[in-house]
Amino acid sequence: MKATQAIKPSEVKRDWIVVDAAGKRFGKLLTEVATLLRGKHKPYFTPNVDCGDFVIIINAEKVEFSGTKLDTKLYHRHTGYFGGVKTEKLGDLLNNNPAKLYRLAVRGMLPKTNLAKEMIKKLKVYAGNEHPHTAQVKVEGK
User: What is the reported pTM?
Assistant: First the structure.
């Protein structure tokens, strides 16, 4: 019986993956993104090593939500001062800063360790169709 091999951080091969968010459900899209960032789709996945790929999300503002979440779902943060609770609606956060919204949601799906800080750095979110990472993206057919 052969033992399972654990991969070393220097042996990890990272790809750049572009995900188009237009017309997709927010939660379903982010579970796929969290899987790609974590590296669970690779055959040599090791839980204590950052095996994930770089993920670029384009058209972040064109994602779909079910029901009335855009008006009713709230995000809270605290400034650290007395009475310093700040609340923002999902719709406002999506319009003003979609990258922050995506990071908050994906961060909750990653492990609660220092490894997650390295994984979340590989997530790039852009509201429009353009992104500056064209040199890194693999072109199909070449």
Answer: 0.86
